[in-house]
Design goal:
The protein has a four-stranded antiparallel beta sheet with strand order 1-24-23-22, with no helix packed on it. The chain has helices spanning 17-20, 112-129; strands spanning 28-33, 40-46, 52-58, 68-73, 79-81, 89-94, 101-105, 144-148, 156-157, 165-171, 177-184, 187-194, 201-202, 211-216, 222-227, 236-241, 248-249, 256-263, 269-276, 287-292, 298-300, 308-313, 319-324, 334-340. By secondary structure, it is mainly beta. Strand 18 and strand 19 form a beta hairpin.
Length: 345
């Protein structure tokens, strides 16, 4: 997730008509809801052994309306909060050896509790007026990247000198590097640093835009990400070498919004989220898509009404997990999981 006034604009080349008609049951088997105990939950990632997941969720009755970070056993469903419990948290990820996790948090903000109170008041006002707020991501300058053990112990900040929003971190496959986003609203760039927080290096240079949601390719040589550099809030997908060279766009359709790209283990395909924003009078329906980044061919994976976003693969690539508000009348987002069948090309 991201703090910016994003309308969640995800864009890739529009797939052929025949691909759009394929029912999701061709690619997703044994679909199950993973979380249900929270006001809302999402952006989940697997542990290296595939036995646990880490995600963000809003608890009930805690006095904090913002996401906190949880680790959950897939077998049995036992979960525990590992973040401090104050402020905003987002973008949690397991280190490849499973011994550490990272996540972004604003719990050190001296005004953190007043922000929580203000959010509840705003929600009450929205409810009274019958309003549904447009999705927005606040680039909170107090959000920094933290490392901890998977149980939340030994918490320490990896970006203590950051003066603005620093989040959206993920590890390289060897666990030696972290790629992340940092900046202020209207100018967020991608950086790569050592896993201990040292030697940060900027790898994107396009100014006056948001660059975010980065993930290393399986071989660590490339980074996939999203950016609204073409038009504000209209996200497109890009790939760049890990040293900042060789950047290229994967999508180029300003009527669509593309975001949340995630690598398949072959390094040639990605799974991502997209929606048609061409009709301003309609609420866009976000779905999951599969893309061959070498030839641009795409396949639509989900079809159900409701948002299907933030897809990730299990370590063995046999399962897909994503955040969804599918089913019912505007249900809150929760995590879902399914067996994944690789599309044939």
């Amino acid at each position: 997730m991201n703090p910016l006034l994003l309308t969640l604009v995800v864009v890739a080349a529009q797939p052929p008509a025949e691909d759009w008609q394929t029912p999701e049951t061709a690619y997703l088997k044994n679909i199950k809801q993973v979380t249900s105990q929270f006001v809302r939950a999402g952006e989940g990632y697997f542990s290296p052994d595939g036995k646990q997941i880490i995600y963000q969720a809003e608890e009930k009755g805690t006095g904090n309306p913002f996401y906190q970070i949880f680790v959950q056993d897939l077998a049995g469903g036992r979960f525990r909060k590992i973040s401090p419990g104050l402020g905003r948290t987002t973008c949690a990820y397991f280190r490849p050896d499973g011994q550490k996790v990272i996540f972004a948090s604003s719990h050190d903000d001296p005004d953190v509790k007043n922000h929580q109170i203000a959010e509840y008041k705003q929600r009450d006002e929205d409810l009274r007026k019958g309003l549904r707020r447009r999705y927005q991501w606040d680039f909170d300058p107090y959000v920094k990247i933290y490392e901890s053990n998977p149980d939340g112990s030994e918490l320490r900040c990896l970006t203590p000198k950051a003066k603005h929003y620093t989040a959206e971190g993920s590890y390289s496959a060897d666990g030696k590097k972290i790629v992340y986003s940092s900046g202020s609203a209207g100018n967020v760039q991608l950086y790569v640093m050592n896993a201990d927080g040292t030697e940060p290096k900027q790898i994107t240079t396009a100014l006056k835009c948001y660059n975010g949601g980065p993930f290393f390719s399986p071989d660590g040589k490339q980074v996939i990400f999203r950016s609204d550099r073409k038009e504000k809030d209209r996200l497109q997908l890009y790939v760049v070498n890990s040293d900042g060279t060789g950047e290229r766009a994967l999508t180029d359709n300003d009527k669509w919004v593309y975001w949340a790209p995630y690598w398949h283990k072959d390094g040639k395909h990605i799974i991502y989220t997209a929606a048609d924003h061409s009709d301003e009078t309609k609420r866009p329906n976000y779905d999951l898509y599969w893309m061959n980044i070498e030839n641009g061919r795409t396949v639509r994976i989900t079809h159900m009404p409701g948002a299907d976003v933030l897809p990730v693969f299990s370590p063995d690539m046999k399962k897909l997990m994503w955040t969804s508000s599918r089913g019912g009348e505007r249900p809150p987002s929760q995590l879902w999981i399914a067996d994944f069948v690789v599309p044939k090309e």
